[in-house]
Amino acid sequence: MDPKALIARRVAQEIEPNTLVNLGIGIPTLVSDYLDEDMGVFFQAENGAVGMGHRPPEGMSDRHLTDAGGRFVSFVPGASTIDSAFSFGLIRGGHLDLTVLGALQVDEAGHLANWTIPGQYTPGMGGAMDLVTGAKKVIVAMQHRAKGEAKILRECTLPLTSQRRVDLIVTELGVFKPEDDGLHLIERAPNVTLEMILAMTEARLIHAADVPEMHVGC
Amino acid sequence: MHLAISLHDAVDLIPDGASVMLSGFMGVGVPDGIVHALAEAGKKDLTLISNDTARDTSGPGPLFAAHCVKKLICSHMGLNTIVQAQYASGELEVELVPQGTLVERIRAAGVGLGGILTPTGVGTLVAEGKQIIEVDGKEYLLELPLSADFALIAARSCDYVGNLSYMLTATNFNPIMALAGRTVICEPEEIVPVGVIPPDAVKTPGVLVDHVIRSTT
């Protein structure tokens, strides 16, 4: 399976019915493709939407209706629009059940870095700092490595997005859960061995002798 | 000056060196006519306050291409290659502000608050040099109000007294910035008689709007 699709399918399993969810740019955006539309999930976008739907039919896009990446979207029945202050009130105020974000790095303490590579590329934090600080649950969805370099580290070397510990990290190799005693490997992807994961991860992992396989339903 | 002014007169109001809030999110809900006119007029040394810098040719993009901006206060600038180049070369001074903090700082200025306390940014580079205030055992950053000489905003509809309505996700920063600019200039998509926008649909009362870009049709 395509690594990004695998990650998105696994993250989709974490989404509870009747919740408010924010999906970041990139892999997180794919998560909604793997959810039943009758689950009652409303997708929030930082730019001021509650109830974002899929891309509109070809030729039917409205330039006033976009997601936080500026792409044309549609609305689901029951959607609403809000201004930016209200949007971040939802995020910081504890009303957002889950955010799924990409990352440049995560570490054993569950810290996330995703807004700047000093001296190289600084896109800025956008809404990420508020999302990680304010959402009830934070899931990092990312490819396991970038350009051959480990992204799950003992300690982030890039500036942090928040001091808050993320709740779960999902990559195409496995599922990782930061806890008080360190970073736990709780699932491995189909056809991926424990040895492969250990070889491609800089962080020290706590794991059972036999790590269960991820079930992605396909 | 009369509420309705020409695009040319609006541009003349804004001097070099002014601080300018520009609404919009990734190019949506941006007063594009004013942006292009300011760029063509060759304004210099502006301080621009905007959520993001969109892409090279969208949203505030033309202002960077025309070298109008000296200082940028925003939350995201990752998709504009001109901004990235000007930041790397040192031409552009940048203050990055988390998006929720940015909008609340603007709102604070607009509603007469001396600042806001937010947990966002505690323990990160954003906290550097800022006062930390503890409330009920939790740490917050004191973030100060952010106002500007001008707020340039976009609306769906504007009636004859300046009441504004917005559309879908083009609302974003518009109603907040309308509170915080010392002079508020709106570029609506249409101008309609009073009453066409029902009172409950007015998101920005006309009393906040100083000038409206005149209809050219």
TrEMBL record, chain A:
One of its GO terms (molecular function) is CoA-transferase activity. Transmembrane segments: none annotated. Belongs to the 3-oxoacid CoA-transferase subunit B family. SMART domains: CoA_trans. The keyword Transferase applies. It comes from Celeribacter baekdonensis B30. Keywords: Transferase. This is 3-oxoacid CoA-transferase, B subunit. InterPro entries: 3-oxoacid_CoA-transf_B, CoA_trans_fam_I, NagB/RpiA_transferase-like.
Automatic annotation (TrEMBL), chain B:
SUPFAM superfamilies: NagB/RpiA/CoA transferase-like. It holds the Pfam family CoA_trans. Transmembrane segments: none annotated. One of its GO terms (molecular function) is CoA-transferase activity. Keywords: Transferase. This is 3-oxoacid CoA-transferase subunit A.
